[in-house]
């Protein structure tokens, strides 16, 4: 991150904090210009690799909320590619991922396959000279992430992890609140992400060979949120319970930052509140569920002041799509808001969580 938030960590903060008036009326000034309308972003031509669930949401977000276009979709299956293209108004289909990445109409490839395949599919796109947006979790582990980033560096193409939360308006707003010192020095971050998935050994979330489990799919949001607010931790402690298939069913994770800490949880076995909080020496921010999607938050200060940031709810992936378009037009290879180092740090934390809880994917 999170340069703002890093300076908010106890070890980096001055002992006397600046004091700001805590009124909601100040907020528009804090966030103005931080999150531009995605419709003002340049146009790019997207190619979608993998015609699954999230690929459909992404195609709609691009179509309905940006000036960019999804020009092609690639699937392992021709019928699925054609059905997807018809549903989302895409004019070119490829029944082969290599054909998709080599399509000269495509500027940026969006990799929307299971975690187990992100490395190979991102490398395929980079080898074809394409910019790439890779769904979260970026890869199965840090070593695979490095392979992608080394290849991108050598090819001079843009690559970003699709951690869409970082680009949402309420996250920009709460970063503004932190940067103004309104909650003081941060001492604690909490976040949970739990969704109920009935046991099905064939489902990608329960399948070890697809790098299933709670952590890479759901837990990556709390982990990335803590990294965004506090940076990379100095210690990682995890407790986990595994599924019948040997992936993580649920986890409790504590990240240490000297005096500050983050307490995080994730589960495949229940719909949890999916809320987050950031507590400081002068107050706290309570982010409503679903914290990682467009939402609202409340600021509660120790001096009695309280106010609410009223966000919208609904689709939010256009913000990350717009970030990619802006970065590509600017000739950047990484986003300043979701840097390669940010991705490596998150992957390293998750590697350590898996090491402590005994989760290993086949062929890693
Ligand atoms: N940002 C967000 O809100 C969300 C992000 N995600 C992320 O998106 C990615 C995909 O998740 P989701 O869309 O739910 O998954 P789906 O299973 O719905 O789709 C994945 C697609 O990947 C392709 N694929 C390629 N190889 C395989 C394989 N061996 N097994 C299965 N599918 C394969 C398939 O497309 P085809 O057959 O067409 O080639 C499949 O449809 C994950 O990284 C996940 O974490 C998921 C949901 C929400
Ligand atoms: O990012 C995500 C958000 O929620 C989905 C379920 O609805 C997850 O499976 C997914 O990976």
TrEMBL record:
Keyword terms of this UniProt record: NAD, Oxidoreductase
UniProt cross-references to Gene3D superfamilies, sorted A to Z: Dihydrodipicolinate Reductase, domain 2, NAD(P)-binding Rossmann-like Domain
Molecular function via GO: 1,5-anhydro-D-fructose reductase (1,5-anhydro-D-mannitol-forming) activity; nucleotide binding
Residue ranges that the Swiss-Prot or TrEMBL entry lists as coiled coil: none
UniProt domain GFO/IDH/MocA-like oxidoreductase: residue ranges: 172-286
EC number(s) stated in the UniProt entry for this protein: 1.1.1.292
Residue ranges of every copy of the Gfo/Idh/MocA-like oxidoreductase N-terminal domain listed in the record: 44-161
Entry keyword annotation includes Disulfide bond: no
Class of the enzyme per the UniProt entry, highest EC level: oxidoreductase
A Pfam match: GFO_IDH_MocA
Family: Belongs to the Gfo/Idh/MocA family.
UniProt-recorded name of the protein: 1,5-anhydro-D-fructose reductase
């Amino acid at each position: 991150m999170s340069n703002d938030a890093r300076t908010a960590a106890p070890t980096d903060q001055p002992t006397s904090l600046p004091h700001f008036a805590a009124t909601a009326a100040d907020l528009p000034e804090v966030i103005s210009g931080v999150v531009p309308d995605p419709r003002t972003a340049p146009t790019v031509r997207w190619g979608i690799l993998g015609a699954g669930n999230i690929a459909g949401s992404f195609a709609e977000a691009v179509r309905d909320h940006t000036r960019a276009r999804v020009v092609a979709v690639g699937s392992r299956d021709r019928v699925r590619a054609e059905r997807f293209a018809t549903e989302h108004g895409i004019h070119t289909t490829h029944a082969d991922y290599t054909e998709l990445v080599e399509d000269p109409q495509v500027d940026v490839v969006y990799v929307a396959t299971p975690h187990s395949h992100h490395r190979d599919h991102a490398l395929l796109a980079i080898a074809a000279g394409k910019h790439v947006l890779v769904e979260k979790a970026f890869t199965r582990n840090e070593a695979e992430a490095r392979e992608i980033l080394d290849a991108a560096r050598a090819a001079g193409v843009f690559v970003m992890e699709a951690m869409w939360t970082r680009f949402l308006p309420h996250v920009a707003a709460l970063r503004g609140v932190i940067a103004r010192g309104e909650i003081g020095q941060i001492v604690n971050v909490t976040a949970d992400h739990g969704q109920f998935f009935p046991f099905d050994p064939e489902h990608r979330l329960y399948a070890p060979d697809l790098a299933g489990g709670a952590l890479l799919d759901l837990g990556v949001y709390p982990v990335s949120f803590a990294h965004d607010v506090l940076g990379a931790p100095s210690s990682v402690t995890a407790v986990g319970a595994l599924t019948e298939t040997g992936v993580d069913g649920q986890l409790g994770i504590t990240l240490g930052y000297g005096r500050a800490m983050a307490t995080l949880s994730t589960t495949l076995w229940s719909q949890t509140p999916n809320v987050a909080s950031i507590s400081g020496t002068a107050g706290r921010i309570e982010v409503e569920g679903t914290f990682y999607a467009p939402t609202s938050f409340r600021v509660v200060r120790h001096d009695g002041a309280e106010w609410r940031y009223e966000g919208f709810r609904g689709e939010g992936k256009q913000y990350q799509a717009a970030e990619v378009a802006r970065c590509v037009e600017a000739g950047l290879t990484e986003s300043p808001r979701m840097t390669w180092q940010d991705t490596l740090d998150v992957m390293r934390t998750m590697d350590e969580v898996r090491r402590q809880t005994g989760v290993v994917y086949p062929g890693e």
